[in-house]
Specification:
Number of strands of chain B: 5
GO molecular function (chain A): FAD binding; xanthine dehydrogenase activity
CATH architecture of the largest domain in chain B: Orthogonal Bundle
Protein name (chain A): Xanthine dehydrogenase YagS FAD-binding subunit
Distance between the termini of chain A: 56 Å
Structural class of chain B: alpha+beta
Distance between the termini of chain B: 48 Å
Order of helices and strands of chain B: EEHEEEHHHH
CATH superfamily of the domain at 224-329 in chain A: CO dehydrogenase flavoprotein, C-terminal domain
Number of strands of chain A: 12
Helix content of chain A: 25-40%
Strand content of chain A: 15-25%
Oligomer: heterodimer
Number of helices of chain B: 5
Shape of chain B: globular
InterPro entries (chain A): CO_DH_flav_C, CO_DH_flav_C_dom_sf, Diverse_Substr_Oxidored, FAD-bd_PCMH, FAD-bd_PCMH-like_sf, FAD-bd_PCMH_sub1, FAD-bd_PCMH_sub2, Mopterin_DH_FAD-bd
Largest sheet of chain A: 5 strands, antiparallel
Keywords (chain A): Oxidoreductase
Strand content of chain B: 15-25%
CATH class of the largest domain in chain B: Mainly Alpha
CATH topology of the largest domain in chain B: DNA polymerase, domain 1
Structural class of chain A: alpha+beta
EC number (chain A): 1.17.1.4
Strand order of the largest sheet of chain B: 2-1-5-3-4
Chain lengths: ~325, ~170
C-alpha cells in the first residue's frame, strides 16, 4: 500500500473540491470494498476523502410520498428502517441478503452502488484484466467464468456487478443524486452503471469528483407488492448467481404494473424491459411468466461455465412472480 | 503519513499515532497489544476480527484506524464487566462453542452485536416478514452469525450457546 493522505470532509462542497483538485484522491465511505482494494493493490490513491461525517445520513419521506435515502446511510440502518420495511420490502430483502451483518453495519448507500466487481481476475493483480489495467485483456473470457455475465458483456469484460441493493433500486425506479463542484444532476439507477463495451474500467457514468449524495425512490401506488429473491451457492454470506427484484400490481385480474431487474447476470443491474412489456396487461399465470422470462433472456450469451444461469434466471423470475401473484390475490 | 488518534478501547482512552494505512485491527494488535481481536483472512471474509465500534459489530480489518478518532472500541476483552465474562462468553464456554478458539473472540463480539440488533427489532434475511419483529430462532442465529466462520466447525455448539445466552 502506498502512503496516502487522509482528510475528513466537513461539508459536501469541500469533499467534492478535494477529490476534483487532487488527481489521485478518492472518496472513502464505509471502506468495506475500498480498504480491501488498498490491501490488494487494485487501487493506489494518494488521498482518501472521508465522506462519512457529511450530513447525508438521513432517510426522509419526499413530498410526493416517496423516500430520499442519504448516501451515507448504512446498509443495516436502511434495511431496518420502518418505511423501507413497510413500503419497499424488496429493498430491505435485497440489503439483508447481501454481505454479513458486520459489513452491512459499515457499508453505505453510495458505496454499495459504487462497489466493484468480485471477478477473481479483477481482484488478483497478477492476472490480465481490462477493468483493472485497461488493454491487458480479459482473463475470465476463457478462464473460470461460472459467476460471470450472460447479458450485455463484451470481449473486453464479462464481469458482473455484485450489488443486491442496486438491483432492488433499479426495479423500484430509483434516482441517484450526484453532486460536483459545478452542478448537481440526477441519474436513474438503471443508467448509473455502464455495460462494459470497450471501456470496462469505467463501471459507471460518473465523472471524476462527482459524489453520490442520495437515492430517491418514487412512491408505489396502493396495491403494489415487491419482492427480492437471491440464488447462491450457500444460504448466506455469498454473492448472487442470479437474483430478481420485482414490483407487481394486479388490477381487474390483469397485470397493471410490473418492474423487474436481474442481478448476477450483467455488468449492471439488468432491468428486464422486454419481460415487463410482455407482462403488462397480461393475466398473471405461470406460462406467461415463463414466456416473458424467455423473451428477456433470448439475448443471453453464455460463456463456457455459466450456461446454467439462463434457466436459473428464467425459473427464479417465474418463482418470484408466482409468489407475488399469490400475495396480491390473497 | 502519521496522524494522532484517541481510541477508547475496552473502556480505556488510548492515545496513539497511526500511519493512515493502519487498520483498526493492526492498531489494536500491533500498537496497543490488545490481541483479543484476531487476524484471520484480513479481507473481510472470516469475521475473526469482529469488534464493537461505537456499539456496532464491524470488521476491524476493513476499518482504517485514522477514521476511528474518539470512537469506542470494544473487543472480546471488554465485553464483560470488571473481569467477569459476558453471558455470551460464559455460554460459549459452557456449551463447548469452540475448539481451537481462534474465531471465538470475534464470535463473542458478533453475538453481542446480534443481540442488540435483535433487541432493536432489526430483521434478517430469514425473517419471515421483515415488517414484523423477530424472535432469535436457530435459523435466525445461523443467518445473523453467518459473517463469522469457524474452521473447526463448532457451529452446532455456538448456536446452542447463543440460544442459551438469549434466554
Amino acid at each position: 500500500m502506498i502512503p496516502f493522505e487522509y482528510r475528513r470532509a466537513e461539508d459536501t462542497d469541500s469533499a467534492v473540491a478535494a477529490v476534483e483538485e487532487a488527481p489521485r484522491a478518492v472518496f472513502l465511505a464505509g471502506g468495506t470494498n475500498l480498504v480491501d482494494h488498498l490491501k490488494l493493490g487494485i487501487t493506489a490513491p494518494e488521498e482518501l476523502v472521508d465522506v462519512t461525517a457529511l450530513p447525508l445520513d438521513t432517510i426522509e419521506s419526499t413530498p410526493d410520498g416517496g423516500l430520499r435515502i442519504g448516501a451515507t446511510v448504512r446498509n443495516s440502518d436502511l434495511a431496518a428502517s420502518p418505511p423501507v420495511r413497510e413500503r419497499y420490502r424488496a429493498l430491505s430483502l435485497a440489503l439483508l441478503s447481501g454481505a454479513s451483518a458486520q459489513l452491512r453495519n459499515r457499508a453505505t448507500t453510495g458505496g454499495n452502488l459504487l462497489q466493484r466487481t468480485r471477478c477473481p481476475y479483477f481482484q488478483e493483480v497478477t492476472t490480465p484484466c481490462n477493468k483493472r489495467s485497461p488493454g491487458t485483456g480479459c482473463s475470465a473470457l476463457h478462464g473460470h467464468n461460472k459467476n460471470h455475465a450472460v447479458l450485455g458483456a463484451s470481449d473486453s469484460c464479462v464481469a458482473t456487478h455484485p450489488s443486491d441493493m442496486a438491483v432492488a433500486m433499479a426495479a423500484l425506479d430509483g434516482t441517484v443524486h450526484v453532486r460536483s463542484s459545478r452542478d448537481e444532476r440526477t441519474i436513474p439507477v438503471t443508467e448509473l452503471h455502464r455495460l462494459p463495451g470497450e471501456q470496462p474500467h469505467r463501471d459507471t457514468v460518473l465523472e471524476r469528483g462527482e459524489l453520490i449524495t442520495a437515492v430517491d425512490l418514487p412512491p408505489l401506488p396502493e396495491g403494489t407488492y415487491t419482492a427480492y429473491r437471491k440464488v447462491r451457492e450457500r444460504a448466506s454470506y455469498a454473492f448472487a448467481l442470479v437474483s430478481v427484484a420485482a414490483v407487481l400490481r394486479v388490477a381487474n385480474g390483469v397485470i397493471d404494473d410490473v418492474r423487474l431487474a436481474f442481478g448476477g447476470l450483467a455488468h449492471k443491474p439488468w432491468r428486464a424491459g422486454t419481460a415487463e412489456e410482455r407482462l403488462r396487461g397480461a393475466i398473471p399465470e405461470e406460462a406467461t411468466f415463463r414466456e416473458a422470462a424467455e423473451a428477456e433472456l433470448s439475448v443471453a450469451r453464455p460463456l463456457a461455465d455459466n450456461a446454467f444461469k439462463i434457466p436459473l434466471a428464467r425459473n427464479t423470475l417465474g418463482a418470484v412472480l408466482r409468489d407475488l401473484t399469490t400475495e396480491v390475490l390473497r | 503519513m502519521e496522524r494522532p488518534v484517541t481510541l477508547h478501547v475496552d473502556g480505556t482512552a488510548r492515545k496513539l499515532s497511526v500511519d493512515t494505512r493502519t487498520t483498526l485491527l493492526d492498531a489494536l494488535r500491533e500498537q496497543l497489544a490488545v490481541t483479543a481481536s484476531k487476524k484471520g483472512c484480513d479481507h473481510g471474509q472470516c469475521g475473526a476480527c469482529t469488534v464493537l465500534l461505537d456499539g456496532r459489530r464491524v470488521l476491524a480489518c476493513l476499518v482504517l484506524a485514522v477514521t476511528c478518532d474518539r470512537s469506542e472500541v470494544t473487543t472480546a476483552d471488554g465485553l464483560g464487566g470488571s473481569g467477569s465474562p459476558h453471558p455470551v462468553q460464559r455460554a460459549l464456554l459452557e456449551h463447548d462453542g469452540l475448539q481451537c478458539g481462534y474465531c471465538t473472540p470475534g464470535q463473542a463480539c458478533s453475538a453481542v452485536g446480534m443481540l442488540d440488533e435483535a433487541k432493536a427489532g432489526w430483521p434478517s434475511a430469514v425473517t419471515e416478514d421483515p415488517r414484523q419483529n423477530v424472535e432469535l430462532t436457530e435459523d435466525e442465529i445461523r443467518e445473523r452469525m453467518s459473517g463469522n466462520l469457524c474452521r473447526c466447525g463448532a457451529y452446532p455448539n455456538i448456536v446452542a450457546a447463543l440460544r442459551e445466552a438469549i434466554r
